[in-house]
Please model this.
Amino acid sequence: MSGAGGGAARGRFAVVGGGIAGVTCAEKLAAEFPSEDIFLITASPVIKAVTNFKQVSKTLEEFDVEEQPSSLLEKRYPNIRVIQSGVKQLKSDEHKICTEDGKEYIYEKLCLCAGAKPKLIVEGNPYVLGIRDTDSAQAFQKNLAQAERIVVVGNGGIALELVYEIQGCEVIWAIKDKAIGNTFFDAGAAEFLIPKLTAESRETPIKCKRTKYTVEGIEEKGRPTAACDKLGSALGPDWHEGLHLKGTKEFSHKVHIEILCEVKKIHLQQEFIQLQQTSLTFPKGEKDVEPDEVLWPVYVELTNGKIYGCNFIVSATGVVPNVELFLDGNNFAVGEDGGLKVDKHMHTSLPDVYAAGDICTAAWEPSPVWHQMRLWTQARQMGWYAAKCMAADALGESIDTDFSFELFAHITKFFNYKVVVLGKYNAQGLGSDHELMLRCTKGHEYVKVVMQNGRMMGAVLIGETDLEETFENLILNQMDLSAYGEDLLNPDIDIEDYFD
Ligand SMILES: Cc1cc2nc3c(=O)[nH]c(=O)nc-3n(C[C@H](O)[C@H](O)[C@H](O)COP(=O)(O)OP(=O)(O)OC[C@H]3O[C@@H](n4cnc5c(N)ncnc54)[C@H](O)[C@@H]3O)c2cc1C
Ligand SMILES: NC(=O)C1=CN([C@@H]2O[C@H](COP(=O)(O)OP(=O)(O)OC[C@H]3O[C@@H](n4cnc5c(N)ncnc54)[C@H](O)[C@@H]3O)[C@@H](O)[C@H]2O)C=CC1
Model:
């Protein structure tokens, strides 16, 4: 890489984004090409590094994420040059990146890892908060500390974590579906989990052991504290464990679930009062959880007719890839979910531009038991594999699809239970032609396997089941299990011995 005095700096490889995908990609490139400078251009003041990586089984992995100053990364890899500035423009036909600080960088190969942002139910409403990075999590915590009641909208990972963790604040949880946690669970698993949610007390959460560098939120009088506009990296597992998620009330946990509904409208206090006084058709709030004595700053009208007053709303309704800026002037193919389409070599539709992590949409023909989900683990795997593909292309070598894309595997924690999801764990895309087998011991474990034509296609394991490795193997080798029938989940049979 050479700085062309005053003009653009030139280099073989550039990566945009200091999250897990970008940092992993830059690290791998730096290791593959120790004599080349690798440009890592990122808008965030800190980078995210994977630490304590543990391969739990063939495809399951666990690791911590640390926010680190970029100097640490440069120390570990002296050929990585971190440029802390947002990308302003990509001129892909010129192989050029322009940054906000007025500099230009010419690359031979580029990997875009700019992540995603929360997909909010409404944009620009100061009472609707999204949670993405350390900054927005802190803004949320600050607002919660003043709150008596909040409404959480959404039924995925963030909502599941929030409703379990929040203390001293009433939570109205509005979900589109019949059962909780639709992105990870079916109704059976949801049923298994519910008692944990309604229990008055929670197990003490493990203390956060990660270093955090944070940016303070900007406060506006009378309105929820807003997170600043800087694009930070996404949080990862256990993000809430260093935060004190407590409202103003003395009680421990109080969650009320509204199922099969969406937000119809959000009314500010003044508008709500006016509508109550002037509109004959507007509900008077009598369907509220309890007749409200207090006036709330904001009111949420649900499609089921109910209206809840609250201090603010959390929109935990998924993410949209950060592509806008890169689309300007560049004819990228974009997936239905708004991500940059990548082929099986993480290559976008434009020459020499790759993408990895939350920003991309996997557009290759996937293995029958793998699908994309915007997760930490996939961000790491994609970043690593994109670097391998960039290296192979640069050297004119061929490369096979990475093994991590053979089987979808995710290990996490919900409601203080260990949760492992494998393959088509919710029978995604299998149509009606599948069977479910269940084993459940209340308060202890929930095991579900998805079978098709005698083969195991997916599994949900909640609790300490110790089955993940065996089931991972059974899904990967697609053995015909018809002969075993219900014995597959018989707790009196040591299934591991059976198949090892
Ligand atoms: C609250 C929360 C909890 C989560 N919990 C889990 C979990 O338990 N398990 C799990 O697997 N996943 C979890 N995830 C998802 C996971 O964090 C993400 O999938 C993953 O971190 C995405 O990594 P990424 O590198 O693709 O993107 P990001 O981490 O978003 O990084 C994007 C990077 O790009 C930079 N950037 C953006 N735009 C520009 C620009 N124009 N110029 C320069 N740089 C730019 C940003 O500053 C940032 O450094 C969670 C997400 C959230 C929000
Ligand atoms: N432990 C884990 O593995 C965790 C993973 N994550 C990841 O972080 C990312 C962001 O998390 P989430 O925002 O929870 O996204 P998500 O994709 O997990 O869930 C989004 C939820 O919002 C619902 N939804 C979408 N639009 C809606 C609307 N207009 N009204 C009501 N509901 C709507 C969806 O049905 C879904 O339940 C995801 O990629 C998620 O997988 C987040 C937290 C924990």
